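Closing statement on the adenosine-5'-diphosphate sub-project.
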Amino acid sequence: MDAPLINIKDISFEYEQTKALENISLKVEKGDFLAILGPNGSGKSTLLKIMLGLIKPTKGTIELFGEDSKNFKNREWVGYVSQKSNSFNSGFPATVEEIVAGGLAKKTGLFHRLPKNYKEEVHHALVAVGMESFTGRSVSELSGGQQQRIFIARALVAKPKVLILDEPTVGIDHQNVQSFYNMLASLNRDKGITLVLVTHDVDTVTDKITHVACLNQTIHFHGFKDQLHTMSDAQREAWYGHSVRK
Ligand code: ADP
Ligand code: MG
């Protein structure tokens, strides 16, 4: 059996005044589609930043692909779309193609150099998120959900093994959320991309995910999605921080 792609071992993290995470352990295996749930302020974004190596835990260790993350220098394993990425002001001039190509640009000294076949690579990434007919459009003309897909394409174009998304449906119209998750599920199923996402869309993701992790001040839980279905209403309320109908 391969080592987990991400193995978080008993980590804690404190900002100057705030304990954000306490004694969290979590494994992400190849092919997983993991949803991280929890009320606002429960440390979900902090946990993602720790997985990404953007911040170091105050306690505990992280292994990536079986190696201590301290020794793991490869940054290409992961694509990340942060919370509220889709907030271009109107008038932002970049086209969809330019934004997605940015995910391929390698910094070489002062220059960003694109590979020769970048148009083809950008096209494949846009097809994967269902946005290939928008190539020449300005991103600021697109809806929140369309912009979110463009950011995912920008991450995908670098061919990551794992895609990490922080509340990706926040700017998406309610009626488009289902098709957004269908797109993510096909990345997971058809392209074999391991997905980790923070979300509040408990009811919509349940059919798509393979695993769930819940964070709140008192309960930490990581298990299979089936366990979501067997929770009592009181447990669901405790885990999500608000009541959620099945
Ligand atoms: P979530 O994503 O679940 O809403 P966060 O990981 O953003 O939670 O935050 C966890 C806790 O850490 C919260 O209490 C939040 O106020 C605090 N926090 C988050 N970012 C910072 C920061 N940069 N400086 C200080 N405290 C922070
Ligand atoms: Mg957050």
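The chain has a mean pLDDT of 87. With this model delivered, the sub-project is considered complete and its resources will be redirected to Aim 3.
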